């Protein structure tokens, strides 16, 4: 009996020891020490005119090292930062060195030189270091930017990208590290965007504006007479109304008490829905026409 109790005790202790080991190992994994990244990530956001410009990059530091001509060799392609690709995003089309660049995200690569840098805006946005295979057809813009030397006593310790010299239609994308500053000018279509807004405002609301206002008022149970007025304006400005637009018009006409007009609009919507083979709208229109006594 004694040996049985001892044996059972030993087995129990082994189970407890194993359980404690698992718990401690789990705690150890969860309590891993966090340390700062040598080249921390940064995000720069700046509105230039009416264009949102965002730069995502990592920021290495000098730490007593010679940068240009040593850590970053002259004449060789550089990722322009650290870790993953340095990315710039433009919310509208822009112009860089005479090149039209579509709105979107691009990686930035450079070839630093003693007197000037070659700066490339590249289509690929995923990766680290530099591309294993450089493809010229992926370069959306390329320019040469003059190096501005700064006094050694005010050397910049940490690599910095900035957006400088802001104007309504342009700005400079600046690269600064050690004792070098390089700026790439880019233009944004502020004037075109403002002119388009002015023209739109002076011409008054569009058919889409009237349609959106009418359907909102109808859906929310607001002033149905206003909704009908706006829908009438939307339809008068629309050369060939779509079946879903006619559907909304029929509902607004029915709510306003114009059953005859509602039936006419629903029939047109039904015809269009059948041509588009949209069974959902076919059924909705047929149901409404039955409800309004037209079928």
Order of helices and strands: HEEEEEEEEEEEHHHHHH
**Radius of gyration based on Cα positions:** 33 Å
Q: What share of the residues does DSSP label as strand, in percent?
A: 25-35%
Mean pLDDT: 90
Q: Roughly how many Å apart are the termini?
A: 94 Å
Major beta sheet summary: 11 strands, antiparallel
Q: Give the class from helix and strand content and strand pairing.
A: alpha+beta
SS summary, helix count? 7
SS elements, strand count: 11
Shape estimate:
elongated
The percent range for helix content is: 25-40%
- Give the low-confidence spans: none
Characterize the structure shown.
It is a single chain. This protein is α+β, with helices and mostly antiparallel strands. Helix content is 38%, strand content 26%. The protein contains seven helices and eleven strands. Strands 1, 2, 3, 4, 5, 6, 7, 8, 9, 10 and 11 form an eleven-stranded antiparallel β-sheet that branches. Helix 3 (207-219) packs antiparallel against helix 4 (224-236), helix 3 (207-219) packs across helix 5 (243-255) and helix 4 packs antiparallel against helix 5. The protein is elongated and about 85 Å long. The model has no long low-confidence stretch (mean pLDDT 90).
